[in-house]
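User: Last request for today: this protein with flavin-adenine dinucleotide, please.
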Amino acid sequence: MSILIYTESENGMFKKSALELASYARAIADKLRVELIAVSFNHKDHQTLGAYGVERVVQISDPSLENFTALTYAENLASVALANQVNLVVLSSSANAKYLAPLLAVSLSAGYASNVIGLPESFDYLTVKRSCFTNKAYNTCVLDNDINILGLSTNSFGINENHKEILVEDKSANLTKTNFEVERIEKSSGQVSIADADIVVSGGRGLKGPENWHLIEDLASTLGAATACSKPVSDMGWRPHSEHVGQTGKPVASNLYIAIGVSGAIQHLAGINSSKVKLVINSDPEAPFFKAADYGVVGDAFEVVPELIEKLKAFKS
Amino acid sequence: MKILVCISNVPDTTSKINFTNDSKAFDKNGVQFIINPNDEFGLTRAVWFQQKQKAEVTVVTVGDLSCEPILRKCLAIGADKAIRIDLNPTDGFQVAQQLSFLCKEENYDLIIAGRESIDYNGAMVPGMLSALMGYNFVTNCVVLEIKDNFAKVSREIDGGIETVSCQLPLVIGAQKGLVEEKDLIIPNMRGIMQARQKSLTVLPAIESDVKSVITKFEKPAPKGAVKMVDPNQIDQLIDLLHKDARVI
Ligand SMILES: Cc1cc2nc3c(=O)[nH]c(=O)nc-3n(C[C@H](O)[C@H](O)[C@H](O)COP(=O)(O)OP(=O)(O)OC[C@H]3O[C@@H](n4cnc5c(N)ncnc54)[C@H](O)[C@@H]3O)c2cc1C
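Assistant: Here's the final one, the structure of the complex with flavin-adenine dinucleotide:
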């Protein structure tokens, strides 16, 4: 018996979600007294993983793994899982992890639960709580299979250091021929993505037009935050679709979510609910968002936000 | 080109989410059901292929009789025919397996599903179906072009867009951005009348496996009261975020 995690890296560093995954899986491994194995692709930095509780890392390196492809990555994870009698695989909720999880599940004949929000409630029959109805509710689900896969919700467990002596194993890649080719990747450079951000600053229709978005951008850059928007804002083309958060957009699970000129419609709230702390700035004291907020300021965004930026800059320096 | 669009019947986005007294099931009382929004983006794209590239569009759902109104709506939007696989499914794997039985019979070139349903948020049906079929798969799909036997597909990644090319058959997980909001089709009278004449076939379920079982639903604990800060006291706000919430 052992636990496997897929530790993702980007720009030569493990992602924060990889360290959260290691911390989470470490807690399970301690409970079950089993080994925790990490798999990383084209990334050789075992020290970091050892600091978060990983005992063994399987490093798979190959030039053709440079670009993520779900099928190839899933096949390689499956082969490590089978070679090590793995009965629990834990994945993050990144776009890539969610992409490969169902492929891995079929390949291992495993059960799969996404959006898991905490440690399993029981291991006799693996029982986990997960979010559903786009964060409007939770369900408890039982996975009774030889191998199971859990997808851990971003920012639901936290990162804990736990130093282990780490064993490094290099493994060559399994490469099956496919007719699937990554042609290009366009990344907005220098920007934090909503998925990875600790803080997200979001603007709604209350900002009146795209020409006012410097307020959102300036506040975000002051805080090192990602920028987001409500659905009508992206529908009107003020901002790209990729910034649309909510039930039909992206989920947000940041530590701090700042909503400016967003009314707080049920579909918007659904997507951002799992953010830990919500600050709402809205000129209408009756805006429904205040009911879902932790901190609220009733005021005109065009006055409050510039002052907030200025004072934050002073606070930071 | 034969296209299959997988449709999920979900509660309207404005629905209050409640559960039955024993917490074992979603309480459908007074809830209106809609086509899962991610599926609707996919269906809209499929109808575009039907109109511009002579594709034939079948919609399918795995569900009981109560799902038929949304299948009729899909027909009114423009799908050519509908199939209901008669099973109230237990989990996403079971849905994927039921769909795979149909796909093995019908050999679709393109299978479109939503990247996830807005009720269970499992995010597994399209991926599992592709794996069961041995087809290519792209999820979080925001661009889909087909030429001859080739697809050019873009998917949203964390912080960007990735574009891939691959051969059909292909399964995609559709999401917002695949079509423009203004292109969503609201059925008109003619569409609704035509939908009545189109075929809606009910297929019996084939024995399939279940890999997870939901034992309980619950709602989040009520939130604490909001702390209001005077707009003239921004220093206090920063102090609260720093010392009280510890998020900056
Ligand atoms: C099927 C479906 C799915 C949907 N999915 C989503 C989704 O995923 N995400 C989403 O966001 N929405 C979604 N919506 C839309 C949702 O119902 C709301 O229409 C939308 O969230 C409102 O956006 P908004 O808050 O920016 O605009 P509005 O509701 O117009 O709110 C603007 C707010 O700005 C405030 N304001 C105005 N001027 C100022 C000022 N000077 N300073 C400060 N505040 C000001 C106003 O008081 C108001 O509260 C969906 C709707 C449907 C039907």
